[in-house]
Amino acid sequence: MSRSEFFYVRPNDVYSNYLRLRKDEFHHLVHVYRRKRGDIFSAVDGKGHVYECQIEEVLTEELEARIVKKARYVGEPYFQLTTALAVPKKDRFELLVEKGTEVGISKFIPLLTERTVVKVKSIRLNRCQKIALAAMKQSRRSVLPAIEQPSSFEKLCQHAEGYNLKLLAHEKTEHRNLDDLLQTSKTKNRLKYAKTGILCIGPEGGFTDEEARLATKHGFATFGLGPRRLRAETAALIASVLVLDRMGELR
To answer: Which member of 57, 151, 181, 198 has the lowest number of beta carbons within 10 Å of its beta carbon?
Structure first.
């Protein structure tokens, strides 16, 4: 595949060896990048497919291109990380979605905890999807990260059995940092075969002791993030990067 910018094509607009580019993506390719008939560009469908295409027909509001090469899962991590963050103030969840998509997070979950003070409606899921889409193209990924509906912490714990690795950032823990946790024999054994993981980050007041005990009961391991107090979205991004790096996804 070429190193050109990725453009988004809806999966329903891919037909065998052809595809159609419409609306904003069409405008961006034709009117901003000045591509014309015969030019080559790369399109991604958010489902793991990347297409190298040659423009065959340019219409008023869309174009048709022939697919000359296909690739799968370009830019995608082997280890699939879900990051669950207690709903932060203002647009900070959107910041996590943007930067988290760039570094390789596969799924985002807005989390409702005992100390969450922000209303659920502050999470604009449609806007978050648009931000994730733009970040996917910019970072040359091929799968659009999922953004789940807000979930209570209790419900998340109850439905986390499918993850190979379950982590919770908590200041009251015996493991001072992630490396300290990963060096334990129990966690080392999990890492050998881990393909999926979930990371939970609490609000700025942190998880309550009761929530930490509930998570431990459901198989979560806890670790600290150092001596400085971090904003929730900062902690989520740093912890996600640390996990992805330790799993070999940033090397």
So the answer is: 57
Pair 102, 140: CB distance under 8 Å: no
Q: Helices 125-138 and 92-103 meet at what angle, rounded to 10?
A: 30
Q: Which segments of the chain belong to CATH 3.40.1280.10?
A: 80-246
User: Which numeric CATH code is attached to 80-246?
Assistant: 3.40.1280.10
Q: What would the pLDDT profile of 112-170 be if each residue is shown by its tens digit? A: 999 988 777 778 999 999 999 999 999 999 999 999 999 999 999 999 999 999 999 99
Q: For residue 26, give the amino acid letter.
A: F
- What are the C-alpha distances in Å from 92 to residues 65, 115, 128, 182, 207? 38, 17, 11, 29, 18
Tokens found for residue 183:
């060096």
Please state, in angstroms and rounded to a whole number, the distance separating the CA atoms of residues 207 and 201. Answer: 8
What is the spatial distance between Cα 2 and Cα 30, in angstroms, rounded to a whole number?
18
What is the SS3 string spanning 95-159?
Answer: HHHHHHHHHCCCEEEEEECCCCCCCHHHCCHHHHHHHHHHHHHHCCCCECCEECCCEEHHHHHHC
And the tokens for 55? 């423009």
The secondary structure of residue 30, as a DSSP letter, is I
Q: Please state the pTM of the whole predicted model.
A: 0.93
Q: How far is CA 81 from CA 24, 60, 140, 146, in A?
A: 30, 41, 18, 11
pLDDT attached to residue 174: 79
